[in-house]
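Reminder to self: tokens first, then the designed residues, so the page reads top to bottom the way the pipeline ran.
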């Protein structure tokens, strides 16, 4: 794996042989190239991303299982949106398919407890072969109403170094203000800031005393260097000193990920977080772009038993802090892992779209010491598999795969599992007949695949995706995320030529 700095043009975007909606061949598409990046758009060394590669197709006679850690991160999608809104195609290394898909609502039925499994699928619209199918594996956590959730102690660690000045800090303050609007009287908030050193700006304060909390948010001022280590140490120390046995304990880190004082080695910092985490979950919110280090922030979220998101606009800050964060404050499953076992008699090959940096060995599925993903109340996770079935199809009762999910109960620490099986009859006969949310997942994944140069990017064009995304907006009226998605795909198509 290699780290790459700065923006580079996306790999050549291949033309389509197939249209998404009808899956019919077209002859008038030709390969197009991505526009050159604009270096003047970046004041610093540029953002840092990690290249994780692309999952290969696997023959089930060699290995019929796929095992990965659950991931509820969404940061990659909003990073891409920030690029496109600035008139640039994203760095392909910044694009992760699963984070694109997981940004969107799925409308899975919520279970009463544990994690529910949703399975469906359809034909694979980009490959052309009659033997290609697409399987969607969805996980859904229970929804907990605000009045029913446990009280929370939030320790907010805010980067106030010089690189956070201007729009970055404006987004942070807007998000925190919206967060306070949605907390209850039984919740409490502490604020730690860091620049060249760390400071306890506000000790753990109950929400019944809102004035000093809001004053502290308004007083945030950027200055100095970035001693990320000092901020993390002080933040976790204060969270530990104020652990709430009858509620949820969470640390929220807001930073661009640039560390230039104290311990600056990302791996060392991530290990420190893993040691300090305990029962305290970490939410990492990335901001900025000129000095943005996504590799550091995503590692932190993984080690801190939490999730990673990215702010590109004030609107996203208000949405994230007002809905996603407050709605998922209560952890419903810890160290969640998924294992999909394909029947070689029904599936000859498979490819998992995304989750390249969350792969596990198969025997790690049952090992409860292995780090998995934390799933909060209301969270859903979606994984997509492209599979090859026998020519001529299968009987409707033919089993394609069995899906197992394993997690630890957040209260007892005891392991729990759920399983479900998908048959050929669970798949619709065509993409056009598939439910709107399934078509949404396919189009969003295809968008990511094109931008990152993955296999689907060789079979569909951005222009075709834009046409089909426009149709999707009519099938999902009133969904702001879907409407914005259609606009972003069209922007990317225009930038690509």
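Designed residues (497 positions):
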């Amino acid at each position: 794996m290699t780290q790459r700095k700065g923006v580079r043009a996306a790999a050549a975007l291949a033309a389509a042989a197939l249209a998404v909606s009808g899956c019919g061949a077209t002859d008038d598409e030709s390969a197009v190239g991505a526009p050159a990046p604009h270096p003047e758009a970046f004041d610093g060394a540029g953002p840092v991303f990690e290249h994780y590669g692309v999952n290969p197709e696997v023959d089930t006679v060699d290995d019929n299982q796929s095992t990965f850690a659950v991931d509820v991160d969404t940061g990659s999608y909003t990073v891409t949106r920030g690029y496109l809104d600035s008139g640039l195609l994203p760095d392909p290394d910044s694009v992760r398919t699963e984070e694109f898909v997981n940004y969107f609502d799925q409308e899975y039925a919520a279970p009463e407890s544990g994690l529910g499994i949703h399975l469906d699928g359809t034909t694979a619209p980009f490959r052309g072969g009659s033997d290609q199918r697409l399987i969607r594996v969805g996980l859904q956590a229970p929804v907990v109403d605000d009045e029913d959730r446990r009280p929370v102690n939030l320790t907010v660690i805010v980067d106030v170094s010089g690189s956070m000045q201007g729009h970055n800090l404006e987004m942070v303050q807007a998000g925190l203000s919206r967060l306070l609007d949605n907390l209850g009287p039984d919740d409490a908030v502490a604020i730690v800031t860091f620049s060249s050193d760390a400071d306890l700006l506000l000790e753990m304060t109950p929400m019944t005393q809102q004035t000093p909390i809001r004053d502290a948010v308004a007083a945030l001022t950027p200055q100095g260097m970035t001693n990320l280590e000092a901020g993390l140490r002080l933040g976790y120390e204060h969270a530990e000193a104020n652990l709430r046995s009858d509620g949820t304990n969470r640390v929220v880190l807001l930073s661009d990920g640039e560390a230039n004082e104290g311990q600056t080695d990302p791996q060392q910092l991530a290990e420190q977080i893993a040691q300090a985490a305990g029962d305290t979950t970490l939410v990492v919110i990335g901001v900025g772009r000129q000095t943005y280090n996504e590799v550091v922030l995503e590692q932190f979220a993984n080690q801190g038993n939490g999730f990673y998101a990215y702010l590109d606009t004030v609107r996203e800050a208000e949405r994230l802090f007002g809905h996603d964060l407050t709605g998922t404050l209560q952890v419903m499953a810890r160290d969640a892992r998924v294992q999909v076992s394909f029947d070689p008699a029904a599936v000859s090959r498979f490819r998992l779209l995304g989750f390249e940096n969350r792969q596990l060995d198969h025997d790690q599925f049952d090992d409860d010491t292995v780090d998995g993903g934390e799933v909060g109340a209301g969270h859903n996770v979606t994984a997509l598999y492209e599979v090859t079935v026998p020519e001529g199809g299968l009987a409707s009762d033919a089993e394609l795969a069995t899906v197992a999910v394993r997690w630890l109960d957040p209260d007892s620490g005891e392991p729990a599992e759920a399983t479900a099986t998908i048959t050929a009859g669970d798949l619709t006969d065509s993409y056009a007949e598939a439910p709107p949310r399934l078509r949404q997942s396919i189009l969003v994944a295809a968008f990511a695949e094109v931008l990152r140069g993955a296999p689907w990017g060789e079979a569909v064009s951005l222009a075709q995706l834009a046409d089909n995304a426009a149709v999707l907006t009519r099938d999902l009226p009133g969904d702001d995320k879907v409407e914005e998605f259609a606009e972003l795909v069209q922007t990317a198509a225009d930038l690509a030529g």
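The first strand starts at residue 2 and ends at 5.
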